[in-house]
Please model this.
Amino acid sequence: STEPVAGGSGSFNRRKRNSLYVTVSLLVVSLLILTVGLAATTRTQNVTVGGYYPGAILGFGSFLGIIGSNLIENKRQMLVASIVFISFGVIAAFCCAIVDGVFAARHIDLRPLYAGRCHYYAKSTTQPKVSQDSGTSPELGVGFKKRLDSHLSERV
Model:
């Protein structure tokens, strides 16, 4: 005899609820990625940052997942589209992290380091003597501060 298993729909509802929790949390994370990426893009003037692209792609994929899990017809197609966009978003996140890192490394101004004005001092238990010199670099045409207790030169 073929009797339906008692509690079968309860298991399905539990899995659906858990998948909605994961999808909504992915949407929240993707919106966080999007806002941090947009904030970084608007604050940097000389370095192009593309870190917000994966947030948009992941957000769209998780939005499709939320819609697809609540559909009755075309559920499978919507969930497949969601999985595809989420996969592209994860791949884009890795690619953008690498590209942004390369662009940031290429745009670091190394002239103060090559001029010998920036030195690395290992941290010790005793406080180093702090001496600040201010001046203008003739090579760079900019002002600078040199602190002996810091790890890098600061431009004024």
Observations:
- The chain is about 60% helix and 10% strand.
- The CA atoms of residues 134 and 145 lie 5 Å apart.
- The chain has a mean pLDDT of 76.
- The radius of gyration is 26 Å.
